[in-house]
Amino acid sequence: MSEVNTETVATSPEAVAQHLAASRYLADDSLSTAIFLAIRLGKPLLLEGAPGVGKTEAAKAIAELLGRDLVRLQCYEGIDAAHALYEWNYQRQLLAIRHAGEHEIDIYDDRFLIARPLLQVLKAPRQRVLLVDEIDRSDHEFEALLLEFLSDFQISIPERGTIRAEAQPIVILTSNRTRELAEALRRRCVYHWIGYPDAEREAAIIMLRAGNVAQATARAVATAVQTIRARPLAKPPGIAEAVEWANAATILEKGGSPWPEAFRRAIGVLIKDEEDLSYIAPELGSIVEEALA
Amino acid sequence: MMRETSLPRAAAPFLAFARLLRRYGFAIAPEQVSGFMQAVTLLGPRSMADIREAALATLAPPPDRHDEFEAHFQSHFYGGTSAVVEGDADEETRIKDDGGADDERIEAEQRQEGGELSSALEQLSSRDFQRGGDRLTVFRRRLSSALPARRSFRTVRTHSRGKLDLRRSLREIVSADGDVPSPLLRRRQALPRKLLILIDVSGSMKLHTADYLKLAHAAVQGTDRAEIFTFGTRLTRITTALRIRDREQALARAAAQVDDWDGGTRMGPTLLAFLSVPRFSSFARGAAIVILSDALERGDHAELETAIRRLSARAFRLSLATPLAGDPRFQPATAALRAILPVLDDLVDGSSVNSLTDFILSLARPAPAAETIWKRVS
User: Fold this and answer.
1) Which end of chain A has fewer CB atoms at under 10 Å, N or C?
2) Closest-CA distance of chain A to residue B44, Å
3) Which residues of A40-50 are buried (b: 16+ CB within 10 A; e: fewer)?
4) What distance in Å separates the CA atoms of residue B225 and residue B146, rounded to the nearest whole number?
């Protein structure tokens, strides 16, 4: 991929927002400001928000904006250095020893090093963007390890010495806030809380993301989803669900269901929790009707 | 101070804003302040909105305190003095960490004995305690192995039941000239989680606090991963006092440290105060938290709700043991209880030492969430 100079892309928050829109991601002012600041200050960007508000999508759009590859590290409970940093390919090392016979061989050569996401980014900081996804799922030790990585951008491999990034890589962290992150991690980052968008922006997002949905449908979906989110649901629908709902309803409508009915029948793609479904069912008709009006 | 004078005068309001936020309990690091000023420079700033965005992005106030942050921002940069700040500024909850407070010991001992409650109840609880004695010994012995464990990041060498430790094995192989001796194994270590017990010492819990303190003493003796706090109108850490091996002495020392025996309850504010001290709130991180309280919050329970929600976000498991649940007709019917029920992992009977020890020893075993249990009952 061609290298894009960060300073030419990120000249102002508005320019960032424009570029993001070109990558089919609509960011509001404060998100584009946060992205702009993260790029220009050379700090990691920490995005927090409820599931389904487009945190991971934002990271993908940023990678596209910079013309870089996205390296994604998905966190989970029990993730450790061998998954995040590097690992030796022991099987190949053993084979190489066998093969070498009497000859001398360096078994800590690059050939035997498996680079995991953090090391991959470190090796080519100008071509890659690192996404550390759902960091709240990992445990504290991993957070500490990441902290070390984020402050110095270097990794020590005992057999090889320290590998240092030649430039400051761009790092994006996301968290669903199922647990609170360490204060030290938060303060190293540029922070942004992504909330649900307002109806107008959501309609625009649905138009952009869904296949061929009429503008009136997009607007109705956005309004209805806003109302549904205001209810005390166990799992409020995210943006992706709203897009799917608009898509599904359009397909059903083309298949012959009239409008309010199509929305009601497609509800399964929007609300995916049995209790929520039974809670919202009696009201659904009036919500949809109101949104269509 | 030297640095500050060398900065341009226009930078002063930004520094002052950071100081203001710190005064209201926002954790803001120096690097965040410099990041804030860099960000403002980068953005122009063309308008106040730019400064606000820069502040939000770099000073990173927690999302649930955004309103408060906004109020401070308005009052600082727009000069309005009537910032709406949530209550904790004026009536700060007093926090006491244990230090040497020996001189009050005698007085507190007397106070502890001076309960003039109806004799029947008194007898009942003391009889419970007689049996409770051996229970506590058993509890103390079994606690450290019964606490929920988490897998550590570190691995230990092991001779059985482990994964192949390729790195170490390979070293062996290289040093043995390519010969394969018996492979070495490794396994991730299991560490017991922390146990955090928060004891309500307000008037309504009078009957039970003595038992609870004995339980807490046994817990501290049983594992080094226990932390004990008491709360009423204030918050007191009594872990160090309870480290004394002799129970009578330890309880006397702890009793002397707590100033708010049998007073009112301000559960919400004191728990928030607990969370606002970073060192304390880190005790809660990934811990099994047991709150021993009847959760009878006077007045508004909004603060209690916030505090419980924040606690549960930090905790591995958050349980409320209430003596009221000892009554079979008990229902979580008060507004406060209903509000916090969805975030509680357990709501259990805390009326006797027996039920409590059984519960704490079972913390490692999974159980359905409190809400599902109590829904089924009602």
Assistant:
1) C
2) 9
3) bbbbbbbbbbb
4) 12
Contact B361, B321 (CB under 8 A): no
User: Does the pLDDT at position B125 exceed 50?
Assistant: no
Does the CB of B38 have a partner CB in chain A at under 8 Å? yes
**Structural domain total, chain A:** 2
The encoded tokens of residue A71 equal 């390296």
- ipTM of the prediction: 0.77
Could you report the per-residue pLDDT of B224-253, keeping only the tens digit for each? 889 999 998 888 999 988 988 888 889 998
Q: Is B58–A37 a contact, with Cβ atoms under 8 angstroms apart?
A: yes
Residues A223 and A172 in one domain: no
Fill in the amino acid letter for B65. R
Question: What size, in residues, is chain A?
Answer: 293
Residue B184 and residue B172 in contact, taking contact as beta carbons nearer than 8 Å? yes
Instruction: Kindly indicate the confidence band of residue B94, based on its pLDDT and cuts at 50, 70 and 90.
Output: low
pLDDT 10s digits, B26-47: 888 888 999 999 998 888 888 8
Same domain, A156 and A245: no
Residue of B nearest to A32 (CA): B53
- CATH number assigned to the domain comprising residue A137: 3.40.50.300
Encode pLDDT of A16-74 as tens digits: 999 999 888 998 889 999 999 999 998 999 999 888 888 999 999 999 999 999 999 99
Q: Spell out which residues of chain B touch residue A34, defining contact as CB-CB under 8 Å.
A: 53, 56-57
> What pLDDT shows up at residue B373?
82
How close is the nearest chain B Cα to the Cα of A287, in Å?
A: 26
Interface test with B, best of A143, A191, A192 (most B CBs within 10 A): A191
* B39 to A41: CB separation less than 8 angstroms, yes or no: yes
Instruction: Please tell me whether residues A190 and A203 are part of one structural domain.
Output: no
Task: Measure the CA–CA gap between B47 and B65, rounded to whole angstroms.
Answer: 23
Does the distance separating the beta carbons of B173 and A107 come in below 8 Å?
no
Cβ contact A141–B56 (<8 Å): no
Domain that holds residue A95: 6-194
Q: What is the pTM of this model?
A: 0.66
